[in-house]
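2024-03-11 09:14:02 DEBUG pipeline.ingest accepted 1 chain
2024-03-11 09:14:02 DEBUG pipeline.ingest length=271
2024-03-11 09:14:03 DEBUG pipeline.predict start
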Amino acid sequence: MQSINSSSINFCIVQEASTEQQQILGLLLSIELYHKQAKCIVCCSESVKKYIESFPKMLDLNLDFRLLDKETIFNCLTYIKNIFKTLQYGIETYGECLLVSKELIMTNPIQIPDMVKEQGIGFIKKTCQVAEAAYEFQRYAISLLYVNKMDYINKFIKHYETELKCESLFETSFADYSFEQLKEQNEECIRIYAHLAWHFAEECALEHFLHDYSYVGTEDFFAYEDSVKMTDITKTLMIQSHTISFCNIRTATADKRIQQLNNYFLNMLAN
């Protein structure tokens, strides 16, 4: 197992729901295996912080907790706000950060390409093909988002304000909405987020991205025309000479194909 001491990568993790303490701890433990003493900004509730700090093994990471308000109501809008606030803090405090979705597990060290750093932002653009042009956005994965320029975060915020037709994203609330209105707005927030990387790749004419297989998830095996096969992955978790730095192991699923994939990944990680 290759482990590197990388003070130059500042990880960022944001809690989305109230019951994610195990996911967040698991992600932190996996980061520790490959990036000891790395800075990790963790935006979470007090209860998640206590859960992490009560773990019997002290993590060899520099944890920077950004605590959520006790009155926080977990929904998609709140999650989006917390992502942008945490990224703003990461850039202001450390100059750069890598947002990692809390459901991921680190499987190899990650290095940010110099061209991505110079560009100021980077995420994954898949080289695979989609069945229809309407699904082009699926080639862009924001599960990993590197950023070191505040201007990009401000553009993200402005885009949400435009799409949601609100003056200020951070002052917008769904608290008084009916169940149906809340459902509709949450779906809209999810749609905007799903298209976010694709939209900005086009709008900002981005030329540089994170390596194609920096992250591999279940969608890589089932969602594309030229999907990845399990036999494409080497024992050192590489595809086509590219290192897989993160994978998504979805435990809460009844899908037999995904369960088989989970077992395949877990066996590789265990060995």
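2024-03-11 09:14:41 DEBUG pipeline.report Residues 179-203 form the longest helix (25 residues).
2024-03-11 09:14:41 DEBUG pipeline.predict end
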